[in-house]
User: Fold this.
Amino acid sequence: MLNTRYIFVTGGVSSSLGKGIISASLAKLLQARGYSVTIQKLDPYINVDPGTLNPYEHGECYVTEDGAETDLDLGHYERFLNVPTSQANNVTTGRIYQTVIEKERRGDYLGETVQVIPHITDEIKRNIQLLGNKYDYDIVITEIGGTVGDIESLPYIEAVRQLKWELGRNCLVVHLTLVPYLAAAGELKTKPTQHSVKTLLESGVQPDIIVCRTEKHLNQNIRSKIALFCNVDPTSVIESIDAKTIYEVPLLMREEKLDLEALRKLNLESDIQPDLSKWEDFLYRLKNPLGEVKIGLVGKYVELKDAYKSIQESFVHASSANQCKVHVQTIHSESIDDDNAADKLKGLDGILVAPGFGSRGIEGKISAIRFARENKVPFFGICLGLQCAVVEFARNVLKLENAHSTEMNADTSQPVIDMMEEQKKIVAKGGTMRLGVYTCRLEKGTKAAKIYQVPLVYERHRHRYEFNNHYMKEFENAGMVTAGINPKRKLVEIMEIRDHPWFIGVQFHPEYRSTVDKPHPLFVSFIEAAMKFRTSRQAATSK
Ligand code: GLN
Assistant:
């Protein structure tokens, strides 16, 4: 068995250079050469997990199978590798301190002064090596959040320094920097890279490979200059040019031989050629669409690029699967009402109502759903999106005028969406929702069963509220039926409208499970329905 090798990915000069994508791309190439690889993210903030962070702060919160609320980069890791991640793949400073402080209270360090070095750094190192020790991965890639030089990431960099010393050639550091192009000078500039490597060196860490994010190709001269000033081989200066889609990056990294360089430095010779033919096919279909559709994504965080990351990426996967360009138009739920819905939503081939918390924008979501239901526009509701569809149906079809979710109106006399029984006694907010994977049994003869083509599915959840089964008969009699149910607890997981071409709401989050290798069947089918709707819509207008 191979000794686990550790690759650390740090970032310099600026945030948002795409450490997550570089890590995922390198992992993909190594996986394609036959290694078992996982990726871990270390986040320097004090929250124990990002579950309590507002999307404005941190983008989407990604949920793993084992119910961990994690950084959105884990979504990229899964989408690229098609291997599930877990709680162990995302560690925050808050978690590290929480563990150390609990140990201190238990008396594990009795008599000692508990300090950043060695106690905090030991706990960081334990978390890094956990994946190698417990799960036997050949290679663990650890992405250090933040930018070198940040006060809060110092303990992580120190842990990397110690591990580099302890592990020797079983470990390497990849540093991602920016090489800006100064239009006025007509030149690429290496100075910020030199400075960020110097900052890393001040913490005792010499990077082995430098990946340079750039808008223009690096010539030999620039590569040699970076190599010279930063003490790396010229072959270890890797260009990461801006790409049209993140899914091109593994192929760009293969051209730049990032994987070969990493393997050489880790003393792992590989004569297997990475087979990325499936990936290339995915990309070909994505870049050569035969048609197009326009989908409205209705939510309250639309001004934020990363708030619905997994949904956006699931659309990319479905776009390739259908070889159809999916234009996603984000629409602020607060801007929609019953009077303007037809105008705001015209020209859309499908409407997705996003997950969310709290009452802001809720009535706009309900109006958008009413429009989709009445006009037979394909509709996909996810989590809160399903709950709003239930409220809309209750109010406008069942004529339960006061119908609401008790999340929005605790005193409603018609609580069609209500808090789950076991949630009622919970007061703490962090990590206490219904989280992670649950079984869902599909009801025979429903659209959902036809789409999935299997009797049982396993989907991930993140919610406190649920369809109130007290109303089930009334809904079913009026045509909104249960298509998926949790067999143990009888919780409704999927609802659909019988007399509508595609109207499906799911209590879980299918977007967390869509990958390049396995685009999610619900998204693929939703886009298919949108393509059909567009054709009929266009035929109707040309008459
Ligand atoms: N706020 C809703 C609940 O807690 C929906 C959550 C979601 O959309 N993820 O049940």
Summary: Residues 355-357, 383-384, 407, 462-465 surround glutamine (CB under 6 Å).
